[in-house]
Amino acid sequence: MINLYPKTLLLLGSGELGKEVAISAKRxxxxxxxxxxxxxxxxxxxxxxxxxxxxxxPKELKKCIRRHKPDFVIPEIExxxxxxxxELEEEGFKIIPNSKATKITMNRDRIRDLASKDLGxxxxxYFYASNLNELKARASELGFxxxxxxxxxxxxxxxxxxxxxxxxxxxxxxxxxxxRGTSSTVIIEEFLQFDLEITLLTIRQxxxxxxxxxxxxxxxxxxxxxxxxxxxxLNNANLKQAQDMAKKVTEKLGGTGLFxxxxxxxGEEVIFSELSPRPHDTGLVTLISQNYxxxxxxxxxxxxxxxxxxxxxxxSASRVILANNNLSSVKFIGLEKALTEKNTQILLFGKExxxxxxxxxxxxxxxxxxxxxxxxADKAAAYVEVIEN
Length: 389
Fold this sequence. Notes:
This protein is α+β, with helices and mostly antiparallel strands. The chain has helices at 16-27, 58-68, 83-90, 99-105, 108-118, 132-142, 168-178, 236-253, 286-289, 294-303, 335-338, 370-383, and strands at 8-12, 31-36, 49-52, 72-75, 126-129, 146-150, 160-162, 186-190, 196-204, 210-212, 216-221, 224-230, 257-266, 269-276, 315-322, 330-333, 344-348, 359-367, 385-388.
């Protein structure tokens, strides 16, 4: 049977990653419906239709999807009424990658238990706690330093690095305040002395086959991505371990599309960290580093289109552009200085307001080696300042 194009894609979440998915889809002639809790979100600026509603309300979510009848529903964020996606799937709607994977990966406890207990993948040691006393007991058992974070959150919200027992109560409050939804459970995780943290972009195609992008190195602060570079320097044995683990967990989740699978590299040991069933923020670097960006790869996999060889074409890096203050309306200065840097692109996401630490853009750069690429990206990002309009 011949597939007919174009298709209609409905994005649940319209941030900067959704914006790049929408652009890739529009280049292939697709109709894009962008949904979010506020109007004129980044992906809405390049889509055909915008829908503004509370995506954590199952009635509103089902109403929107049933009205538009898209060919594909693509969750781009975790803050969704995921329980109703299975019902929609039973009605014939195509959820990407599928409703099961979306539900499992929105909760750190479910994906961690699946990786560690069901699949036997190596992870950091961890416990759960549902109150402060339990947190103190589990932390004492695990030992310091450690990481505490809510089981449901996004972009590093609610995460703390804890060096001693005196900081536990504060960390508990931060985790509960930063949690998404009503969850009052936190995960306590050993702090690993790792050599490198990577994202392995893993693509599942309609025929069940798996492709990988060259590994991406990245750095985080408070659980949120700050910079990334490609290709990350891994030996062949470590890369093979990461690919085997990524394939194992994504095959268990099933479905089609691109997954961002995170690992810690500790000497000769590869340790599973987290997984997102969608393009990954650290993968923004692929807009300059690969023959196909992670967003084009995601759309091609969703549509069932061919993906020839994925090639890292040059040493490349990214550095985020953050807001330093809460701003009710934003504008940027320093763009002209940033773009004097050679082999550089600046992406401004189009967010109309800012809070301190919010990601507002990214600098992308390439160079003769990774050091040069990272230096150029850092320098370009430093020129750009977000100020009150």
